[in-house]
Specification:
Elements: E1 6-12, H1 16-25, E2 31-38, H2 45-58, E3 65-67, H3 82-85, H4 106-118, E4 124-128, H5 133-141, H6 145-148, E5 149-155, H7 171-175, H8 177-184, E6 189-193, H9 195-198, E7 202-204, H10 205-213, H11 217-237, E8 241-243, H12 245-253, E9 259-268, E10 278-280, E11 286-293, H13 297-307
Parallel strand pairs: 1-2, 1-4, 2-3, 4-5, 5-6, 6-11
Antiparallel strand pairs: 7-8, 9-10, 9-11
Length: 315
């Protein structure tokens, strides 16, 4: 059976797991990646665009990349996570330069693509794997955005699990909690992929070795990034395995990994000791929260990363 092509917009803050998620998506035949926006999170938005363009060039793909918001709503960017992702966001790995970013800001590119696909056979899906600043800005530009797009999949939050930047908050939501609250309340058909499930699926040193052993520049780079990412998680979890935060969200958005969801009314805490917490709240909008995913997730993601190459349609 032929799987319908899914036009997809990716919003990211290209660190190590974003790089793995992007590479995975480029091998999914029914996903048409029509635009990428970058936002400050793991690294600043401009550097995230440089990282993204470099990865696309290594895969010999042409996808518009737009630099998005540098600062969160009502605040200032406080720096990335060099202790997790390295000073350049990708484990300190140097990549050859890619094509310069598009002229339009990320929010404008997202709105334009959403409008372009709104009346077609398949609306634009959106996958957000960084802070949600660009989506909040896009909502200001186009309040009808939730009607124009299909499904919005977000990697973010910690609903019943512990946080990763505070005892209760996950980094993407915490880094722009106001934007997250606006997006959750906007009326999107929304799937949330939180730490509760991403911590259940991991890559380890054997995966890094498989990528490196492939021998080509792309996978050697990904293997090196992953190894350094695992170095960090060993200091946190005391095992040499790294959670598949963004790649799992990508595989769920692509429909290749089946999720178990629990519809839950959610809110985002603003201010105080629990700032950025995604908390069940009776008066919050109902969100499909992913609580489990198929055991094969790591295998599916690994296989596509090992297989990705130039696309005949885009090379």
């Amino acid at each position: 059976m032929t799987v319908p092509t899914v036009p997809l917009f990716l919003d990211c803050d290209t660190g190590v797991d974003d790089a793995l998620a992007l590479t995975y998506l480029l091998d999914v035949p029914h996903v048409d990646l029509v635009g990428i926006g970058t936002v400050s999170g793991n690294i600043d938005a401009a550097t995230a665009a440089v990282n993204t363009a470099a990865l696309l060039a290594m895969c010999e793909r042409a996808v518009p990349v737009a630099v998005g918001a540098h600062d969160p709503i009502g605040g200032a960017y406080r720096g990335g996570a060099p202790h997790v992702h390295g000073a350049n966001g990708i484990g300190g790995v140097d990549l050859p330069p890619g094509v310069a970013a598009a002229d339009d800001p990320a929010a404008e590119l997202l709105v334009r693509q959403a409008r372009a696909f709104a009346d077609g056979p398949r609306k634009l899906d959106v996958l957000a794997i960084g802070p949600l600043t660009n989506l909040a800005v896009a909502l200001e530009l186009e309040p009808r955005l939730p009607e124009l797009v299909g499904t919005l999949t977000i990697m973010g939050g910690a609903v019943w699990d512990r946080g990763n930047v505070s005892p209760t908050a996950e980094a993407n939501v915490h880094n722009d909690a106001e934007a997250a609250r606006r997006v959750l309340r906007a009326g999107f058909d929304l799937v949330l992929v939180p730490l509760d499930v991403t911590r259940q699926h991991r890559f380890d040193d054997a995966d890094a070795a498989r990528f490196t052993a492939a021998g080509d520049p792309l996978r050697v780079a990904l293997g090196t990034m992953l190894s350094r990412y695992i170095d960090f998680y060993e200091t946190v979890d005391h095992v040499r395995r790294a959670p598949l935060h963004d790649p799992l969200a990508a595989a769920i958005a692509a429909g290749e990994v089946g999720p178990t969801v629990r519809s839950t009314p959610l809110d985002v805490v603003l201010g105080g000791a629990e700032h950025g917490r995604t908390v069940p709240a009776a008066d919050g909008p109902s969100v499909r929260v992913v609580v489990a995913a198929e055991d094969s997730a790591a295998d599916v993601i690994r296989a596509r990363i090992l297989a990705v190459g130039p696309s005949p349609a885009r090379a």
